[in-house]
Amino acid sequence: MPLFAPIILNKPESFSMTIKAVVFDMDGVLIDAKEWHFHALNRALEHFGYEISRADHLSTFDGLPTRVKLEMLSKERGLPRELHGFLNTLKQKFTIDQVHLNCNPIFVHEYALSNLKARGYKLGLASNAVRSSVELMMDQAALSKYLDVMLSNEDVKKAKPHPEIYLTAAEKLGLKPEQCLVVEDNPNGIKAAEDAGCPLLVVQTVFDVQLDRILDAIAQEEERAA
Fold it and tell me: What does the pLDDT look like over 186-216, one tens digit per residue?
């Protein structure tokens, strides 16, 4: 038995569904993992005397794949590139430790995704994280069962801010980008969604990802398209 039954609110028979899917970013949208990534990477870097300040994290590094962050550190601060593989592996291990300790289901997210699914929307996830992190976090958050598509940075050649991941999500969902509402919180992800041609709902925290806000954004897009 599910924890709750989806509640379908007044859906007109002639509802056109110009928006046919909702595609979510993960970190900062469905999973409150920004601090986990920040601390996990610094914990790995400190072994070699490197550190990313919080200011640099928020202004420059937040939302980028670890491999991109490491390449930036090599170019800007001389981090030896031969350490990238080891640091990436260590960072992922520390992140997974945090996931097991801190990643739990959030009721408003399961409520939102289950209701969107019941209304006939396709659902996707498009994250700059590695696939193992995406799968683990979605399982821990009890959201995997609602997702038709889960994409990681390993599923594209170019990560956000490049639009490839959102273009790929739309293609895998069998839709056009303009039919996929993207929920994002990060400048890199916002740029990726905009460049892909997807309608956008920008949130500030994971607690802003609520059914009524998503439905309002969909309604606004329907009005624009009318």
Answer: 999 999 999 999 999 999 999 999 999 999 9
Instruction: Give the residue numbers annotated as catalytic, written as ranges.
Output: 25
In this prediction the pTM is: 0.79
163-193: b (≥16 Cβ within 10 Å) or e: bbbbbbbbebbebebbbbbbbbbbebbbbbb
- What does the alpha-carbon distance between residue 148 and residue 24 come to, in Å, rounded to a whole number? 12
Residue corresponding to tokens 């498009």:
126
In CATH terms, 21-32+104-225 corresponds, of 3.30.450.40, 2.140.10.10, 3.30.300.30, 3.40.50.1000, to 3.40.50.1000
- CB within 8 A of 120, min separation 6: which ones? 17
Query: Considering all CA atoms of the chain, what is the largest pairwise distance in Å, rounded to the nearest integer?
Result: 62
